[in-house]
Design brief:
5 helices; 10 strands; alpha+beta; single chain; globular
């Protein structure tokens, strides 16, 4: 899909390697998210880590939240989600199942949030998303963008040898696959 020189530039965060950049990525995420605004049964949560080269979008059904009451009266809510990573520079996305959660104090005020990530074993293809209605909605929303979800087999290929272990990614080491080259924690 990408030649060796372009992969090296993507790995190094060279914004001149493709027509995309972080601003255009965020515009694509907004266009993707807008497709869900009129759907009462689905919600979107977007997270952009300060040190990552991708934007994470959680698609979830708020009614499917898992709730747990703490001994101190706090409420923990976990939202099973379809998680999609949009790369800042390349029109490439990865998806899989994950979750995000939040804790509210007994008085209802916000306490903390936790965001799950993707690793190789979590990756899925768009046509494997269930229920089928969610697959259709996500596919339609993706068509509003220049992004395409790559299959797990693509991301599981070994990264070029120059992509060293000094780079970090989501998930567990070793970080030696194309998935890790594209979705890095940088900085």
């Amino acid at each position: 899909m990408f030649d060796e020189q372009t992969l090296r530039k993507i790995a190094d965060g060279d914004a001149r390697c493709t027509p995309l950049d972080e601003v255009r990525c965020h515009e694509a995420v907004k266009a993707f998210s807008a497709a869900f605004e009129a759907l009462p049964d689905l919600a979107i949560r977007t997270e952009q880590g300060s040190y990552s080269n991708f934007c994470a979008v959680y698609v979830y059904d708020p009614a499917q939240a898992v709730r747990d009451q703490g001994l101190d009266g706090s409420l923990y809510r976990s939202f099973p989600s379809l998680l999609i990573y949009f790369h800042h520079l390349a029109p490439i996305a990865a998806l899989g199942m994950s979750s995000w959660g939040e804790t509210l104090r007994s008085d209802g005020t916000f306490s903390s949030r936790h965001f799950g990530g993707l690793d190789l074993q979590d990756l899925s293809s768009l046509d494997a998303v269930r229920p089928h209605s969610l697959e259709i909605r996500v596919g339609a929303a993706l068509r509003r963008t220049a992004y395409a979800v790559q299959p797990p087999e693509y991301f599981m290929q070994f990264a070029p040898a120059w992509f060293g272990s000094g780079r970090r990614s989501e998930g567990a080491a070793p970080w030696n696959r194309l998935f890790h080259l594209f979705f890095q924690v940088v900085g």
